[in-house]
Write the structure tokens for this entry.
Amino acid sequence: MASLPVERLIGPAVVIDKSVEAGRDPDYLLRIEDVRSFEAEHGALPPGSWLLYRTGWDARAEDAAAFLNASETGPHTPGIEPECARWLAEESPIVGIGVETVGTDAGAAHSFEPAFPCHNFLLGAGKYGLTQLANLAQLPPAGALLVVLPLKLVGGSGSPCRAIALVEG
């Protein structure tokens, strides 16, 4: 974390809101078509941007059981479709993704092909992941600036951070 370039920790934020879909289906997966639809309405993903995936999951943060949403079949939380994770890693100009859930991957991602596609593709491509974000509903779809402030750890593979968004008022 101590060697991360600052310019990769500050960038435009885009918020793709799939809270209605995730409210109906806790296993909802963001698809390439969802990103393309967002781009058609709000413009292309800016180079060096953060894609923030709003699912409304932050409303569950005070209730551990609701937040993890596990059953006998495992956790059920929204995430990103494997092909979309690959596309975001290999073809999109983003530096990372941010989610409201406990991990960047869906709760059922252990059974995907490949398993845990966000970790596999995005982190494998040197892109970053932010988890357990809150208040994404307060951000515009485009136009905010995200600042990620990790702890200065030497030799670590991750860090707690404070992520703040600046919005023109």
Q: What stands out?
A: The first strand starts at residue 10 and ends at 17. The helical segments are 19-24, 32-42, 64-68, 82-90, 117-122. The chain has a mean pLDDT of 94.
